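Why do we care about 3D structure at all? Because function follows from shape, and shape follows, mostly, from sequence. That is the central idea of this module. The next example makes it concrete: a single protein chain, its amino acid sequence, and then its structure expressed as tokens.
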Amino acid sequence: MKTFVIEPINKSLESAIQEKIDNLNKPKGALGRLEEIAMQVCLIQQSLNPSLTHPCHLLFGGDHGIEREGVSVSPREVTWQQMKNFTHGGGGVNMFCRQHGFKLRIIDVGVDYDLSSVEGIINRKIARGTKNFLYEPAMSETEFDQAIQVGCELVDDCVAEGCRILSIGEMGIANTSPSSIWMSLFGNIPLAECIGAGAGLNKPGIQHKYEILSKALNRYLIYEPHPTKITPFRYFGGFEMIAAIGAMLRAAEQHLIILIDGFIMTACAAAAIQLYPTAKDYMIFTHCGDESGHKLMLDMLEAKPLLHLGLRLGEGTGALCTYPIIDSAVRMINEMNNFENAQITKYF
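And the structure:
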């Protein structure tokens, strides 16, 4: 796997940032989470005057072999159909990108359909879906490395355009299944607590999903004591998920602000943090959705999401909806007057 150099955030400016925040003409701490966000953004950018230039959104698409086991109510063709829909501007992600001024990139890293001639989709296909991890690893080591590299290169493209804040989404039927397994493994949480309805499974469907994933997890654990054990990242992950991990790690390496969306992207963030714990310094956890286990996973990461809107669309919509809050935090520290200039008595 590619090696990253992800520095922990330099906190030498922390006292100066806090002083600037406390001297804004407001009661101390009165803007709550906005003050916390402003502090994090300033530290990431090492600046008392941060900016959110050229926001970008990466949407990675891929299919999963485990879908063949009936773990999702949606058939796999929905992946390619929705990917095409995004190119017509008709998805939730399109609407929110337009609303908040994000440049959207739609990337095929593993969709089980030929999208190479579809205008608006970046063709970085590794294979037409992963293998079925009930029986074998989802991807080879070479495929894993390719997916990481795709994520890195897409981030580099954004940085070259001046991007300083990045959000990431996904499109991949059945990708709550690997997310649930990662959550169980990384957090030592019983698998049953990590599994939910995904795109809309009923109770029997959830039970079936649990049984399938339990079998897959038990089979994987046979490999764990072996000296050449297969990592859970490539054993269970989807190409779109591994590309997202690569993007997160490269974004952290480049000191970008990374907006983390719902259940699947939180699982990818957990994987990225497993690999490089300092990557968390660059992440803002934006949203807690209603997928079973999402709050547990956020708690596992000691992450405080900004919103709880009940979103479970994937695509990165929760991150996009949170952007105005990040913008407000940056405007606060850049545009609010201070006590001295406003000629207001500082009373604390």
